[in-house]
Design goal:
By secondary structure, the protein is α+β, with helices and mostly antiparallel strands. Helix content is 49%, strand content 19%. It has 32 helices and 31 strands. The strands form six sheets. A seven-stranded mixed sheet has the order 19-31-30-29-20-27-28, with helices on both faces. A hairpin with a 2-residue loop joins strand 25 and strand 26. The longest helix has 36 residues. The chain is elongated, with a radius of gyration of 35 Å. The two termini are 33 Å apart.
């Protein structure tokens, strides 16, 4: 990604005005001004508190806008930055991507620009007021490309889809037309080999004229897009893949025209002039065939987005003025009461008001088991109601729904570039000029040192070099893998924020879990009920639970709620407590069925002179297992112990085991005491524990691991996890957590299943492996075949590459890359 690079002559001062948010007093503005002034390359910086604006004069050769923004954000303030994704038409190779990216980045006010060849989109971060969509369109069109115009109220994605489909149909028509004209052209060229007698009897001049007639529409109508692209690039003193094709095919065509009308120009003793109309036409048709397959395969790489968009309900059944009626989803308003029947899609996000059902949320979370919904529960738009009927109040509509946010996040990720793409970008910028240089050198060597007819050999090898070079494969290698990888993640409830996050995740060697709400369920549950063994005062476990739960009936303490919930779960009838008293930090007392009941810790029992000697060892054992033991006593006698703990989630142990199989170290971080933390860690199979860590120190512990050379992923769900998530190399947020945690993360697990951590790392490894395979193929293809096309094998084996074969190989290289990418679609979350 190109960040903040403004194209100017070296050491020419540039000014930019940044809108700064969060400043409340003169001290704030002074602090920002001082920090900006100290940045290398900044000649002056002034901050206006009233206008909330920072004006910076700087040398673009020494600093960049993104540096200023990061500095302001590090101080605790913000910069009002807008982001837009715009569809770009007319790009044909990696060189085009570089040109569009550089053009957008050159605009004052643009912070970063990233162009994705596979999705044909540009993602631009910019400062509103300094630049905007009008300027983007103007500069992209000036660079020789175009932007899809979207009218107000029109769906940009749908418009882009229609445009793509239209382009695909045009490509198909041209391909078929070109093929129909090229087949007879080949018959005329190889009449001796085909054995078609009436063709072989044609005078050579008539044969050449018929070939010219057939080849001309292929050259200038079927191949018009190559000329348009090459001319647009030439206007900006640049070259691209279209240049290579246009120059190569034009050379063959012009040579053939001259040979047709002025054969003496090329005739030498013993050799008559031949024509190569078939070569020019076949090259164009084969390249179009490659693009046809490439376009079809590229369409499959974005299937995840199409699937997500297809999930959206088209209508909603609302209750208005006491009657139910169906309305288009666009007319739904926040606060509307929506009715959902069995088998129907839930149209938008909301809160259940009445009714009961189970909802299939697999399309959003990846979880296959339906989730029960009752009054007060949240429902997600695009999920499917399975059994009962219910009514819910619409809470989030349009672009604010979870589905829309997921689509937006996936689109942004697919439009972003990982660091691994930078090498391809650098090579793409010099690729085409280098190939033209090699082709020219090839022509010169063959013309002066090649066998007779040297000009013909020189021209054919010149064409072969131009045609076989393929910047397309380089341009497709990374973005197509990112598109499929992020899309595959979204299908399985794993939302990856950027291509950089997807790449970085494969380097992770240490995974740090927050305990409460991440590894554990986040709420206490009763784990043990142990009754006294003395036969004289023996009571059943159910009786102990009844007394304890009845006493805690009115309590709001989490441990008390856990006991009450356990009683309800076991169908225990609760009695009404009287004279309830709570002793903070110790326990509670109440009268239950005219009996004095005490429930609390050992100190509370000692205060009440209740002998708990029989249970001390049991209590110690429970504490050692990370549980909280509470003694239950009645009428001065201990009846038993109830242990409560924040238990591990069902899949926590499986997730830790799977991470170990991937060769990763697993760490737990918690504010709990060391004994409790180690007990939980032992159960989960965790390697290392940071216990008694204050929320503000979690990020410090992550930093310590990084200083030890670890590449760290932090997994958390709460507000207090946000700094640690931001500090980690990769922050993974549980989708059931807070919005703050989700905002600070690089990856979000929608369903909250910790096995998603394993899947996200495995998906990253598979994607990066796929990218490396693609880049290897793209580089190896060009490194090996360009010399072959130049005639490197001729002195040793007498082998020369026919330009038509070069065209077929070039088309095949792009298709091979995209086909390899589609193997990622077979990735399975285990």
């Amino acid at each position: 990604m190109i960040k903040g690079k403004i194209k100017e002559k070296d050491h020419v001062s540039k000014r930019i005005d940044l809108p700064v948010t969060g400043m409340t007093c003169a001290a704030c503005s002074a602090r920002v001004q001082k920090a900006l002034s100290e940045i290398k390359g900044v000649s002056s910086a002034t901050v206006n508190l009233a206008a909330e604006k920072a004006s910076i004069n700087y040398d673009p050769a020494e600093s960049a806008v993104d540096v200023f923004i990061h500095t302001i954000k590090d101080l605790g303030y913000g910069v009002s930055v807008s982001k837009i994704t715009i569809p770009v038409k007319g790009m044909t190779c990696a060189s085009c991507v570089k040109r569009v990216q550089d053009a957008l980045s050159s605009l004052s006010g643009v912070i970063s620009a990233s162009v994705n060849f596979a999705s044909e989109q540009a993602t631009v971060e910019y400062i509103r007021g300094l630049t905007g969509v009008r300027e983007f369109k103007k500069i992209v069109r000036a660079a020789g490309y175009d932007i899809v115009d979207v009218k107000e109220g029109e769906d940009a994605v749908e418009k882009e889809k229609r445009e793509r489909e239209s382009e695909f149909k045009k490509l198909k028509i041209k391909l078929v037309t070109g093929a129909l004209l090229t087949v007879p052209l080949l018959l005329l060229s190889f009449s001796d080999m085909t054995g078609v007698s009436f063709i072989s009897r044609l005078p050579i001049q008539i044969n050449f004229l018929i070939q010219l007639t057939l080849a001309t529409p292929v050259q200038f109508w079927v191949g018009r897009q190559f000329y348009r692209g090459a001319i647009a690039a030439a206007r900006h003193r640049a070259t691209n893949m279209n240049t290579l094709i246009a120059v190569g095919t034009s050379a063959a065509y012009i040579y053939s025209v001259i040979a047709t009308f002025f054969p003496s120009v090329f005739e030498i003793k013993g050799y008559s002039a031949n024509v190569y109309f078939d070569t020019a036409a076949t090259i164009i048709v084969l390249i179009l065939l490659g693009r046809f397959f490439e376009a079809r395969a590229k369409g499959k790489t974005s299937e995840a987005i199409k699937k997500l968009m297809g999930l959206q309900a088209k209508t909603a059944r609302v209750v208005r003025a006491g009657t139910e009626r169906d309305i288009p989803i666009e007319e739904l308003e926040i606060g509307d009461i929506v009715v959902v029947r069995p088998g129907e899609k839930i149209p938008v996000d909301g809160v259940v008001k009445d009714g009961y059902s189970s909802v299939d949320e697999s399309m959003i979370s990846g979880e296959s088991i339906p989730v029960e919904k009752k009054s007060g529960d949240k429902v997600i738009g695009a999920t499917i109601n399975k059994t009962g009927s219910f009514r819910f109040e619409a809470a989030r509509i349009g672009k604010d729904t979870m589905l829309s946010q997921i689509i937006n996040m996936v689109q942004e990720a697919q439009g972003s570039k990982p660091p691994i793409a930078r090498l391809a970008d650098k090579i793409a910028s010099i690729f085409v000029p280098a190939v033209i240089g090699i082709a020219t050198f090839t022509f010169v060597i063959w013309y002066y040192f090649g066998p007779v007819p040297s000009f013909t050999y020189a021209m054919l090898n010149f064409i072969a070099v131009l045609i076989i070079a393929c910047p397309c494969a380089l341009g497709l290698a990374t973005p197509t893998s990112i598109m499929v990888g992020t899309g595959k993640g979204a299908e399985n409830g794993i939302l990856i924020r950027s291509g950089e996050a997807l790449e970085t995740a494969h380097k992770i060697n240490t995974v740090v879990f927050d305990k409460t709400g991440t590894l554990t369920k986040g709420k206490p549950e009763v784990t043990d009920i142990i009754a006294v063994s003395d036969q004289r005062s023996a009571v059943s476990e159910k009786e102990i639970l009844q007394l304890a739960a009845s006493a805690e009936k009115g309590s709001e303490h989490p441990l008390g709620e856990a006991i009450v919930n356990k009683a309800k779960e076991m169908g225990v009838d609760l009695l009404e407590p009287e004279d309830f008293q709570a002793v903070p930090g110790h326990g509670i007392m109440a009268k239950i069925d005219k009996r004095d009941v005490c429930l609390g810790n050992s100190n509370f029992m000692d205060d009440k002179n209740i002998n708990i000697a029989e249970f001390v060892l049991i209590a110690d054992r429970l504490s050692g297992e990370g549980k909280t033991p509470m003694f239950v006593a009645s009428e001065g006698n201990v009846l038993g112990v109830i242990a409560v703990a924040d238990t591990l989630k069902e899949n926590s142990v499986d997730a830790v085991k799977a991470l170990h199989k991937l060769g990763l170290e697993v760490v737990m971080i918690t504010g709990d005491n060391k004994r409790t933390a180690e007990a939980i860690a032992l159960k989960a199979g965790i390697d290392r524990v940071f216990a008694e860590v204050m929320p503000e120190d979690k990020a410090h512990n992550i930093r310590k691991l990084q200083e030890d050379g670890k590449t760290v992923a932090m997994v958390g769900d709460g507000i207090n996890d946000a700094p640690a998530l931001a500090q980690a190399d990769i922050g993974i947020a549980i989708g059931t957590g807070t919005d703050v945690a989700l905002e600070a993360s690089d990856i979000t697990l929608v369903g909250g299943d910790l096995r998603g951590v394993v899947a996200s790392i495995a998906l990253s490894r598979a994607t990066v492996r796929n990218i490396k395979q693609n880049l290897f193929w793209a580089f190896a293809y060009n490194i090996i075949l360009i010399p072959v096309a130049a005639g490197a094998l001729f002195p040793f084996f007498g082998i020369l590459m026919n330009p038509m074969l070069a065209a077929a190989a070039m088309g095949l290289s792009s298709v091979t890359v995209v086909t390899n990418v589609l193997r990622l679609k077979r990735f399975r979350v285990t």
